[in-house]
Amino acid sequence: MTVALAVEQVTKRFGGLVSISDLSIEVSPQEIVSVIGPNGAGKTTLFNIITGVYRPDSGRILVEGNDVTGLAPSTIATKGVARTFQNVRLFHNLTVIDNVMAAMYGRTHAGLVASALGLPRARREEARVREDAKELLSFFGSRLMGYRWEQPAYSLSYANRRRLEIARAMATGATILLLDEPAAGMNPKETHEITEVVARLRGERGHTIVIIEHDMHVVEGVSDRVVALDHGVKIAEGNYAAVATDPHVVESYLGRGTAGTK
């Protein structure tokens, strides 16, 4: 079986406390895997390990079969992995389109001198990057189109800032997207729309997606497979129905009689 992303027997300690313990997860190309668990279960730590923010104490991370364990976050991004954050991180004073273009510059070739002097090859590349950014933003329809291109990011609604952060992750050229609570703080209509966005990222753009989410409606709506963590240990894995009714998951996270609710 082809594996896009593999977490192999990873353990991470902070001081004397174990945040992740001997964790293994495999994600196939174009699969959507949700990671659930109570606060402190190790979900965001897992993302930080995959993206190089933390180096694991043991185990390794493989991207398309290549070992990226302990590489710098910028290097791992060039391997095709990008993420969003639980708290939205944008260049708030830059425009919408400039936010996306900034994420694309890591893949440009003109160089600092050519760009500073405005040489023809730099201008051509700048024009291409701008057109690529417009095309990417069109994925989000009217939410990030037209006049919104020139709006500063801080002026966007919360839901549109979330969309812009996903757009920035896409703009890196990543094939694997790690989405950290993309529906957090959204109302039911916005949650439904972001669920559709996640599904389309796979269906229309071919992304492999790992998503951390507390809203079980989102998890149920998009997941091919669900992994449940508790205190850094995998306690269940399978389709949504199996994990949502697993006694260990009900006990540690969902609460008795609340499976399928937020």
Structural summary, described in words:
Residues 5-256 form the ABC transporter domain. This is ABC transporter ATP-binding protein. It holds the Pfam family BCA_ABC_TP_C. GO terms for molecular function: ATP binding. There is one protein chain. With 262 residues, the protein is an alpha/beta fold. It has a domain at 5-80 and 174-254: P-loop containing nucleotide triphosphate hydrolases (Rossmann fold, 3-Layer(aba) Sandwich), CATH 3.40.50.300. The protein has helices spanning 43-50, 73-78, 96-104, 112-117, 120-138, 158-171, 188-203, 216-222, 240-244, 247-254; strands at residues 5-14, 17-27, 32-36, 58-63, 66-67, 81-83, 176-180, 208-212, 225-230, 233-238. The strands form two sheets. It has a six-stranded mixed sheet with strand order 6-7-8-3-9-10, sandwiched between helices. Strands 2-1-4-5 form a four-stranded antiparallel sheet, with helices on one face. α3 (96-104) crosses α5 and α3 (96-104) packs parallel to α6 (158-171). The longest helix has 19 residues, at 120-138.
Summed over residues and divided by their number, the pLDDT gives a mean of 89
Contiguous helical run count: 10
Q: Which CATH C-level class of the domain at 5-80 and 174-254 is it?
A: Alpha Beta
Estimated helix fraction: 25-40%
Share of residues in strands:
15-25%
Alpha carbon gyration radius: 19 Å
Instruction: Classify the fold: give the CATH topology of the domain at 5-80 and 174-254.
Output: Rossmann fold
The poorly predicted ranges are 256-262
> Gap between N and C termini, in Å?
33 Å
Please give the largest β-sheet.
6 strands, mixed
Number of strands: 10
CATH architecture identity of the domain at 5-80 and 174-254: 3-Layer(aba) Sandwich
Structural class: alpha/beta
Instruction: Tell me, briefly, the overall form.
Output: globular
CATH superfamily membership of the domain at 5-80 and 174-254: P-loop containing nucleotide triphosphate hydrolases
Q: Sketch the topology as an H/E string, one letter per element.
A: EEEHEEHEHHHHEHEHEEHH
Strand order of the largest sheet: 6-7-8-3-9-10
Protein name: ABC transporter ATP-binding protein
GO molecular function: ATP binding
Domain ABC transporter: 5-256
Pfam families: ABC_tran, BCA_ABC_TP_C
